[in-house]
């Protein structure tokens, strides 16, 4: 299975989600079966490393960052089995890029997999760019919870 995480600029949420998922999948013994990459719907940060606070907070949590900013293209949607977007704006942008129902069917909100999604509804992962460190810490809490749900869905055969 190939998962792609997507946010706006591919320097905050999606590389963080990529790192979180990679570790959670490894811990679950699924790293050989599932690959994770990331991209952004905008081309602002192509080739850039993840945001300083994404790396700092993530590093303190034990996450590693090897990817650089990538601009999402329609071909990426063909390569991925699952595309996890961070917010409604990302969802709209990816759906606009996905010219077929087959591509659109692969796109889901990361928040769909959160432990409280059934009761709280599907929550967006807010963009922490330009905000203080606390927003990045909150982002990681959300991503870790949702990543546990993604791993469970893979294990249970729901994905």
From TrEMBL:
Keyword Lipid biosynthesis found = no
UniProt keywords (A-Z) are: Hydrolase, Protein phosphatase
Pfam families hit by this protein: LMWPc (PF01451)
Q: Which InterPro entries match?
A: LMW_PTPase, Ptyr_pPase, Ptyr_pPase_sf, Tyr_phospatase_low_mol_wt
Task: Using the record's annotation, list all stretches that form the Phosphotyrosine protein phosphatase I domain.
Answer: 1-153
Q: Read off the Gene3D superfamilies from this record.
A: 3.40.50.2300
**EC annotation?**
3.1.3.48
Does the keyword section mention Glycosyltransferase? no
Q: Which residues form a coiled coil?
A: none
Q: Which residues form the signal peptide?
A: none
Which residues participate directly in catalysis? 7 (nucleophile), 13 (nucleophile), 127 (proton donor)
Under the GO molecular function aspect, what terms does this record hold? protein tyrosine phosphatase activity
Family of the protein in this entry? Belongs to the low molecular weight phosphotyrosine protein phosphatase family.
Question: What is this protein's name?
Answer: protein-tyrosine-phosphatase
């Amino acid at each position: 299975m190939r998962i792609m995480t997507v946010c706006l600029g591919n320097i905050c949420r999606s590389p963080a989600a990529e790192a979180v998922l990679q570790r959670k999948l490894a811990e679950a013994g699924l790293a050989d079966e599932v690959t994770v990459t990331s991209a952004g719907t905008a081309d602002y940060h192509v080739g850039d490393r993840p945001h300083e606070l994404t790396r700092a907070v993530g590093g303190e949590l034990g996450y590693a960052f090897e990817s650089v900013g990538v601009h999402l293209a329609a071909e990426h949607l063909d390569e991925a089995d699952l595309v996890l977007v961070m917010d409604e704006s990302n969802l709209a942008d990816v759906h606009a890029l996905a010219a077929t129902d087959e591509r659109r069917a692969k796109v889901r909100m990361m928040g769909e997999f959160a432990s409280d999604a059934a009761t709280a509804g599907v929550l967006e992962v807010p963009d922490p760019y330009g905000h203080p460190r606390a927003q990045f810490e909150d982002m990681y809490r959300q991503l870790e919870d949702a990543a546990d749900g993604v791993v469970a869905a893979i294990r249970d055969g729901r994905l």
